[in-house]
Predict the 3D structure of the following.
Amino acid sequence: MIWHNVTAAASRDDSSALEQCFWDLGAVSVTVVDGGDAPLYEPSPGETPLWQTVQVRGLFEDDVDLARVQDQLTEGKFTVVDCEQLADRQWEREWLKYFEPMQFGERLWVCPTGMQVTAEPSVVVNLDPGLAFGTGTHSTTRLCLEWLDSADVVNRRVLDFGCGSGILGVAASLLGAAGVVGIDNDPQALVSTRENAAKNEVMMTIGLPGEMPEGQYHIVIANILAQPLIELSAMLKNAMSRGGDLILSGIMESQQDWVLEAYGGLDLVEIRSHEGWLLLHLRGTS
């Protein structure tokens, strides 16, 4: 089968509109990438956490009307940067160039489906990029995966709030968690999480925030951004069991005090950092 990979550029203010345009035109996958080779930083509260310029790539099946796609993008004032034709095997090679097995901590690996990890002992999360919301390549996901690898999660109940691709919940399940719940406000992320849970043969409860099961969790993980972490502080604290662990990431070093203030009453156990991003490990009172 032949695929068509169309890339268009937009300012950060227009990125959501460009993404939606691709979906409306029938793309089967839409990926946002940095248009100016700059890292993704979170601006002040109330602003959109995106690069100044972005490129958005839409993957289309062979029967797409490419002329219509390009015309619609141009009419939307977007700049078409590239239009590339890929066969199935070319598409596989395209993402395999950028995604190889990655190790996190002592045991945990994230690996494209079909690739093998020979290291023993190992716990392998099978995950394909492109359609996912988080593959382990970003510092915040890396920090969370390394924490999970170092923690004792066996028979503990885990909440992955803002689950994205489900990578953290799947990893927790494979590491022995007794029950894992994945919550996200994006229905597309829930589809991705369900697919990845099935691929890794783990059981997870997956849903929107309003569908979160009642009860408390031994471990609550929220890898989102500083502003929503602050806004959700009461809910996330209430979701913790007594003496439970709360793992917060998606936080820049300059935002540490700002976030910690919102989580007063919890003990700060540990701070981990990677390339300017933080993971805060907090614990409730017993």
